[in-house]
Design a protein that fits this description.
Layout lengths: L8 E4 L6 H9 L4 E4 L4 H9 L3 H5 L5 H22 L4 E5 L7 H7 L4 E6 L2 H12 L1 H23 L7 E5 H6 L1 H12 L19 H14 L12 H5 L2 H18 L4
Parallel strand pairs: 1-3, 1-4, 2-3, 4-5
Helix pairs in contact: 2-4, 6-7, 7-12
């Protein structure tokens, strides 16, 4: 009798919260394969959700569609990890944070890693990457929407299925944060996760260049740049800071951040 396949891992969180950094760390582990975002499950959640009346006209039960989606997605991830000589797959996709009940239907035994970052720094990152309007949108409620959705879902799961990790803890001292995370995942320690910048990863050249520039700008040593922690509180203008306080203040306080 074949052993049960390892449980899937999903890395979730608000965009610009460090999920790409964590993806590269996990993907450097000798057993774990964590590729680029596919958005497959986000799009399929919409198909089986909002467009269900259309599918229903085929007279095929919902469970049939879920089985097909599960088989397709598992097959895709399994083919990818086997080509890379890995044993367990993970996917990092911030948009999955908003479709977690659907993912739970597909993979009821999955483990979730929710990366949480200070809303002020997330807003500053959006401003730097996509401009002021995007930053305003996130400050008004998108950060709270993502983080709230992830936490609400996690509170309904057993503790061995949901792990909340602070971005600030990860970049301040990566090794203990990653040791604890790998223990949660039931995976052995692999020091390669600390040397993620030396490992080959698919489609990460732009990210590597970007982080190298950030490290130079902030005077950071090593692979992880820490100088952007607290950047939002230092750099955001009074309008954006006020919008963050209104849109994210209660959840920031709940999480122990200064609102």
């Amino acid at each position: 009798m074949d052993p049960s396949p390892p449980r899937p891992i999903f890395v979730i969180g608000c965009p610009r919260s460090g999920t790409t950094l964590l993806r590269l760390m996990l993907d450097s582990h000798e057993r774990l394969s964590c590729g680029e975002e596919t958005h497959f499950l986000r799009d399929l959640a919409s198909t089986v959700g909002a467009h269900w009346p259309l599918l229903e006209t085929y007279g095929i039960p919902r469970e049939y569609w879920l089985q097909r989606i599960r088989a397709f997605y598992t097959g895709f991830q399994t083919d990818y990890l086997e080509r890379r000589g890995k044993q367990r797959w993970a996917e990092k996709d911030p948009t999955y944070t908003l479709v977690l009940p659907f993912i739970h239907e597909l993979f009821p035994d999955a483990q979730y890693v929710h990366l949480v970052r200070d809303a002020y720094d997330v807003v500053a990152s959006f401003r730097d990457r996509w401009g002021y309007r995007s930053a305003l949108r996130v400050a008004r409620g998108e950060w709270a929407r993502y983080v709230g959705a992830g936490r609400d879902f996690g509170q309904r799961l057993p503790t061995q299925r949901y792990h909340e990790l602070r971005y600030e803890a990860l970049v301040a001292d990566p090794e203990p944060a990653l040791r604890f995370l790998l223990e949660f995942l039931g995976e052995p320690w692999d020091p390669a996760v600390l040397r993620f910048h030396e490992a080959p990863h698919d489609a990460t050249e732009r990210y590597t260049r970007f982080t190298a520039e950030r490290r130079r700008e902030g005077g950071d040593e090593g692979a992880v740049y820490r100088s952007r922690v607290g950047a939002g509180r230092r750099e955001l203008d009074p309008v954006l800071r006020a919008v963050v306080r209104r849109g994210a203040g209660p959840l920031l306080r709940e999480l122990g951040y200064r609102a």
